[in-house]
Each structure stands twice: as C-alpha cells, then as structure tokens.
C-alpha cells in the first residue's frame, strides 16, 4: 500500500476526475445549444407591442437570464476545477520521482569527489548540528543523505541506474486517493472508509432520490399538479358550456398558493364591481350567486378576479402586490389550460372518446386570455361566430371603432377580404385612426396565420375501412402568413409573457360530442418536425413495400413540405360499428381569435368480411358500397356560425339541448375517407 501522504496528495486528482467527467461534456452541450440559437423569435413589431416592453431585453433582464441556477452551478464547478488544478500543480513536487543528482544539484555522470563536495556543502546548510529547523532536518535525512548514499554506495548506485531507485526494484503499490482524515479518525481506521462509502454513495443519493420523488409525485405531465388534473377530470362534463370553462379552470391547486392578504380586501372588492358583469352573477338569484362566489377559497376568488380584470384590460389599475399575483396567475395559465384540454379529450366514453364541447371552450378561453378579450365579446353577433372578439384583438380597435365601421365590416373576414387601399380608407376616414395606427393594423393582419388541412383516414394495406380495424389518421397541416413567415410569436401586447402559437387538431363527431383523436401542433421547432415527418414517411413507405429509392424520394418530399411550413400529424383510432359518421376536423389556435379551421370528413365503416378482428369484434356481412366519397361532395364552409356564448344566459341546459346546439353550429363541408379533406383557414 502507498503511504498516507501520497494518498492525500492524489485526493485532488480523484476529485478533479469525478467533477470533470460530467462537467466538460455538459458545458460543451450548453455552449453548442447557445450558439445554435441564431434564429431569434420573430414577434409583432406594432407600436402597441413595442410599448408593452415584454420583447425589450434590458441589461437586468439579460443578467437574470444568465443568472440561472444551472449556469451558476456550472460556473461554481469550474471555479472548483481551477482551484484543484492549481492545488495539484503546487503539490506535484511531493510525488516527483526520486532523482539524487537533482537533489544534490549535480549533473548526471559526475565523479565521486564532486559528489562528496556537494554533500559537504549541503550538510553545512541542512545538517541538524548546523540548522535546528525540523524541516531542514527532515529534508537532510530523507533526501540529501539518501541521495548521497545512492551515488556513493556501489550497490545503491547500480540499483538506481538499473531500476531508478537506490533500494532496487520497487513493488507495485496501491492506495486510496482519499485524505488522511477520511481514513483515520481518532486512531481508529477500521470501518471509517466503509462509513464514507455508505454515506457518500448510498445514503446521499437515496436522500436526493427521496426528495426528488416526493416532489415529482405531486406533478403530472407538463409540470401540472396531479391534484389539479384530478380536479379537472372530475369537473369537466360533456355539456360544459364555454362560459363555464372558467369556473373549472380556476379550481387548479396551483392557484391555492397565491398569498391572501388583508390589504388586498378593498382592491378586490373594487375589482369585483368592475368585472361583475363578466361573472354571470346578475340573474334572478343574484344575491345568492354573489354570496356563493365569495364563499369560495380566497385564493380562487382572487385568481378569477385577476383573470377577469385582465380580460377587460384593467391590469394597469392593480397595486404592486396584486401585480405580482397577477403575473404569477398568467404565467401558470398556458400549461393549466393545456392540462384542461387534455382532460377534456382524454377517453371517457365506452368507445374511448373524449368530449368536444369542453375542449373547444377551453381553447377559446385560452384565446381570450392571450388576447385580453372578455368572454362576453364572443357572443354571436354581427354575422360572426366569434362576435366582436376577433376584431378587438387588433391594435387600436375598441367598441367605438367597431361601431363606426359596422356598416362595412361585421367580421374579421370582411376586413381581411378588403384590398389594402380600401382598408386604409375605411380605418382612416371612417374609424378615425392615424396613419401609424393603420400601419399597426396591417402588420397584425399580415402576422395572422392561415391554415390548410389535408386529412386522410385509411386502414393500412386494405382498400376499405371495416369495423374493428385500426384506422390510421394522417393530417398535413400547412401554415401561411401574408408576410411570408412561418415561425412567429402572436400579437399579444396585454399578455405579459412571451407565448408561442400552439394549434390543436381535433377529429371529432359533433353530433355525439365525441373527440376521436387529438394532437397538439407547434410550428416553432422545425428540426423536431422534420425528424417526425421523416420517420413516419419512411415507416409508411417500408410497410407498402417500396424500394430504397422510392423511400428516399418520399422522405425528401416530406422534409421539403415541413420546411415550407407544413406539419405532419399521425394517429391511430379503432373503427367503431358499421355506419356512416360525419366527423369534423378542427384546427384551433390557442393564441389567435378567428383563425380556426374546420372541415367535415364523412367516414363510412363497413361490416367486417375480412379474416381477423384487428382489435375489434368480427362481424359477418357483405360490403355493399365503397367507403370513399367523391371530391365533389366537398362544399365550402358557410359564414354565420353561431357561438355557444350566445346561449350562456340559460345556464341549466341539459345535454340534449347542448348537442342540438352543436348540430346547428356544424358547417356543411364534406370530406372523404381514404382520401383527403382539405380546407383553407380564414384569410
């Protein structure tokens, strides 16, 4: 075994190795990620968004971005590495190889007389009789005397010349690179090492694991508390009206952490008076409803009042404490709404379907929160299913401006269909907007997304769809903007945080209120979309028996489509019982109002005549007609859909009435199965 001094000297090397192994690759990865982010997020540059200041990075914001816990930890570890390297360099002399010539200050090969002269000179300097310093005595005994003996004694000199050591061949030495205090405690070395190993490599990781698992057990997907997801799952009902989505949304457990202060009582009372009309508490039992509202948990009451005030764009009236709570609530909102959508579309029915109406209502609530538009503005009117909400999201538009242009513009589509000159004349001459304000409106209109959907439903390797088949749903979603951009942040000056566009694809049956398939689509991550489209296309072509050249060409086409602004969605559903199903393909954006797209897809399920169940019940029968509809059946969607917000005054509608309302809202577009249903989004 190596001596304890040598073990202690090697301890910094051991620690340096343990730290450097993960630190170096992690640092390289962080640098590569930072340098790869060359493309900045393109956001709205209208004057309203510029004044909001959320896209302007001050020096303090840049410092705060850099001063993250991860970056601080990496920096601290590198400081430790530098210190260890310096410590190792300083102590390197202690573990240098034994060289008697260098110790005596001589050149190799000198005569014995020269060696004796050097020894006498050093003896005068370090001999205990001449120098009482203990360090000098130790150096004389361990180095000078040993070096003199190695060079004057014939056997020692021969051993040194042959083996590099005056004592001859040295055996292989093993040691533990740990300091002495870890190996010896009050003279008792047995068991100390075992204790350190047990504590450092067993107990400490277990403690970290217990803490991590205890925290992770509280959260589900998208960092949402499991308690919140369970509450949403319980409260979401199939006939949940859009105006009632807010009542479910605010029940999140995350909102319970909002501090409740006595100093906020009076400001919250003022807020209540301000947003009272939006709370739907003005019915026949107004007093009872108001009393019921205030009996809720104080944090829940505060959260709803803050959100309603945000929808009315009254956040600038908040006190400093309320401003802090307000930002905390809105920061939680996107992921909570995403969790609520998932709880609405999670399989609920016996057929494994989710519910359409609460899913649509949740996306519409998200649109209103991001654009700071009250839910009451979505009530059907002026020939638009979104009411005036889609116009209120435009910069410098107010109820007064909308009233002035009502004769010529009743919907957002009317405004988009105008020529640039017609729009400029209307907004400047009739609405009274300045040239700069008109330019702001044009910038936002150019930034609005327009979507196209191509949906196909087919049983792979088969001509028709029979009951029990596993049906592949494939949708190509293309995004276009008037300004030519694909990836961009929406115009949302009143939402205090940066929020990217998120689209929800819903394949649903409006008649039964069932969601057959749902998927979230993001256009910001092109690399991930290319990987997904390539893998799906390659797997599909291989299953069809294509050769390598055909597969490569198909993958190349898929990648080109993704780069041009398309995203591929793929899912599997099980074909229900035989019959004709009029499905709707919804593409809804969670940030823009009036940019949603919907198509109809007529799907015919035939009785089973093929062998095998394919996961479903085998039914004997004869195929009477093909399940592919002609493209001539595809008709254009009609304007004038009625929003469900117009029916919110009757809060006690039963499920049958809700389903009937959904039927009235359906468009008349028809698609086809084993083909494609395609529709362009609103311009």
Q: Taking all residues together, what is the mean pLDDT?
A: 81
Number of strands: 9
User: Which range best describes the helical content: under 10%, 10-25%, 25-40%, 40-55%, 55-70% or over 70%?
Assistant: 40-55%
Give me the number of helical elements: 25
The value of Rg in angstroms is 37 Å
Class by alpha and beta content: alpha+beta
Q: What can be said about the biggest beta sheet?
A: 5 strands, antiparallel
Strand percentage? 5-15%
Instruction: Sum up the overall morphology in one term.
Output: elongated
Strand order of the largest sheet: 1-5-4-7-8
Can you walk through the features of this model?
- The protein has helices at residues 4-36, 47-52, 59-66, 69-90, 100-104, 112-126, 134-152, 154-163, 180-183, 192-216, 226-235, 245-249, 265-275, 286-294, 298-311, 320-345, 356-371, 389-392, 399-404, 412-417, 420-430, 435-447, 526-543, 548-563, 655-665; strands spanning 354-355, 450-458, 470-480, 503-509, 514-521, 566-574, 579-589, 597-605, 677-680.
- The protein is an alpha+beta fold and 683 residues long.
- It starts with a helix and ends with a strand.
- Keywords: Chaperone, Endoplasmic reticulum, Membrane, Protein transport, Transmembrane, Transmembrane helix, Transport.
């Amino acid at each position: 075994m190596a001596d304890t001094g040598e073990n202690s000297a090697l301890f910094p090397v051991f620690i340096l190795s343990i730290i450097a192994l993960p630190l170096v690759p992690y640092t390289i990865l962080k640098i590569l990620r930072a340098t790869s982010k060359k493309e900045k997020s393109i956001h709205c540059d209208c004057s309203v968004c510029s004044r909001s200041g959320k896209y302007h990075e001050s020096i303090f914001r840049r410092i705060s971005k850099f001063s993250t816990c991860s970056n601080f930890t990496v920096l601290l570890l590198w400081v430790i590495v530098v210190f260890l390297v310096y410590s190792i360099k300083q102590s390197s002399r202690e573990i240098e190889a034994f060289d008697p010539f260098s110790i005596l200050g001589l050149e190799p090969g000198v005569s014995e007389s020269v060696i004796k002269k050097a020894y006498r000179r050093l003896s005068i300097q370090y001999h205990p009789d001449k120098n009482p310093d203990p360090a000098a005595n130790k150096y004389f005994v361990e180095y000078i005397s040993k070096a003199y003996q190695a060079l004057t004694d014939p056997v020692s000199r021969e051993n040194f010349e042959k083996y590099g050591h005056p004592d001859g061949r040295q055996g292989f030495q093993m040691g533990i690179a740990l300091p002495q205090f870890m190996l010896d405690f009050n003279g008792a070395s047995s068991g100390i090492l075992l204790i350190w190993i047990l504590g450092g490599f067993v107990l400490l990781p277990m403690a970290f694991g217990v803490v991590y698992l205890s925290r992770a057990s509280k959260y589900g997907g998208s960092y949402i508390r499991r308690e919140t997801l369970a509450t949403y799952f319980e409260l979401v009902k199939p006939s949940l009206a859009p105006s009632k989505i807010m009542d479910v949304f605010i029940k999140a457990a995350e909102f319970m952490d909002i501090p409740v202060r006595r100093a906020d009582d009076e400001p919250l009372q003022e807020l209540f008076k301000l947003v009272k009309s939006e709370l739907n508490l003005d019915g026949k039992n107004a007093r009872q409803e108001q009393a019921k509202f205030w009996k809720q948990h104080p944090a829940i009451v505060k959260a709803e009042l803050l959100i309603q005030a945000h929808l009315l764009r009254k956040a600038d009236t908040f006190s400093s404490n309320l401003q802090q709570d307000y930002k905390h609530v809105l920061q939680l909102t996107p992921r909570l709404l995403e969790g609520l959508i998932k709880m609405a579309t999670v399989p609920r029915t016996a057929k494994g379907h989710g519910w359409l109406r609460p899913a649509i209502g949740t996306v519409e609530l998200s649109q209103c929160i991001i654009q700071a538009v009250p839910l009451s503005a979505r009530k059907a009117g002026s020939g638009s299913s979104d009411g005036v909400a889609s116009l209120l999201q435009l910069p410098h538009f107010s109820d007064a401006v909308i009233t002035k242009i009502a004769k010529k513009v009743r919907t957002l589509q009317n405004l988009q269909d105008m020529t640039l000159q017609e729009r400029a004349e209307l907004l400047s001459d009739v609405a009274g907007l300045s040239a700069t304000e008109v330019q702001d409106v044009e910038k936002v209109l150019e930034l609005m997304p327009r979507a196209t959907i191509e949906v196909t439903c087919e049983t792979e390797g088969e001509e028709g769809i029979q009951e029990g088949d596993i049906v592949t749903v494939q949708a190509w979603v293309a995004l276009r903007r008037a300004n030519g951009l694909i990836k961009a942040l929406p115009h949302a000056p009143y939402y205090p945080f940066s929020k990217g566009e998120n689209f929800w694809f819903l394949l649903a049956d409006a008649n039964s209120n069932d969601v057959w398939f749902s998927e979230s689509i993001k256009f910001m991550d092109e690399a991930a979309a290319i990987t997904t489209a390539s893998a799906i296309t390659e797997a599909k072509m291989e299953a069809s028996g294509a050769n390598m050249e055909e597969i490569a060409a198909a993958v190349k086409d898929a990648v080109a489509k993704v780069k041009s602004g398309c995203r591929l969605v793929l899912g599997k559903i099980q074909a229900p019982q035989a019959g004709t199903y009029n499905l709707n393909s919804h593409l809804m954006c969670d940030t823009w109002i009036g940019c949603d797209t919907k198509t109809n897809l007529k799907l015919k399920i035939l009785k089973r005549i093929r062998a095998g169940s394919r996961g479903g019940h085998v039914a004997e029968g004869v195929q009477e007609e093909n399940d592919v509809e002609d493209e001539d059946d595809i008709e254009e969607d009609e304007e004038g859909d009625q929003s469900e917000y117009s029916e919110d005054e009757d809060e006690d509608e039963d499920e049958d009435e809700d389903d009937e309302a959904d039927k009235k809202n359906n468009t008349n577009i028809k698609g086809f199965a084993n083909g494609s249903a395609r529709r362009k989004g609103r311009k």
